[in-house]
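Morning. Coffee machine broken again, so started the prediction first thing and wrote up yesterday's gels while waiting. Chain of 199 residues, entered below exactly as on the submission form.
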Amino acid sequence: NMDIKPEDGRNYELGLRGGLFKNRFNFDITAYQMHLKNAIVPVARPNGTTAYRNAGATNQKGIEALLSYVAISNSEKHLSFLKIWASYSYNDYRFTDYKTQSFDWASSSVITLDNSGKQVTGVVPHSLSAGVDMDTNWGFFSNLVYYYYEKIPLNDANTYFSNPYSLLNGKLGYRRAIGPLGCEIFAGINNAFNALYTT
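Came back before lunch.
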C-alpha cells in the first residue's frame, strides 16, 4: 500500500525530580499522555492475504516513579552502604479508534472487529520492582530485587491475558582492587521461587 502515512502523535509530559535529607532520599516521578494517530492496522483481503492501512488511534497515558533511600553510606562501618529503592509504572494504553479486518475461511467473508476502548496489546498495566543493595568494607556485596507484573492483554480484542507473576532475583559477591585492576566474584539466582510467567 503506497498510500500509507507515517504514524504521528502528540506527547505531553510532566516530571518532578529531586532529593531530600542531603540527597539520601531521591525521587523521580513522571506523568505523561500521548495521542497517536494514523496507527497502521492490518486489513484482510478477499483472497486471504493481508494488507495495511492507516485506520487507528490510541491514547497512551501513565505514571512512572522511582524512589530510593540511602540508609547507610560510611566506608568506616562494616556495613558501609545500604540502599533501598522501588520503581513503579502505570500504563493505561487504550485503542480509541481501532478497527481490524480478518478473512474467515469458513464463510469466505471479511470480518471487521472494532477494538476501540480496549487495552493495547502487549502492554503491562501495572509493574513494580523493588530492591536492596548492600556493600561492606570487607569487599562483600549483595543485592536483592523483586518484580511484579500484572496480567497483560495478548490480543487486540482483550479476550486472552497472561497471568500476573512475581520474580525474585538475588546476587552475592566479593570485589577487591588489585593494583590498578579490579576483581569481582559473584553468584546469583534469577526467579528464586521458580514462578511460571509464560502461559
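The longest strand covers residues 50-73. Going to sketch it on the whiteboard this afternoon.
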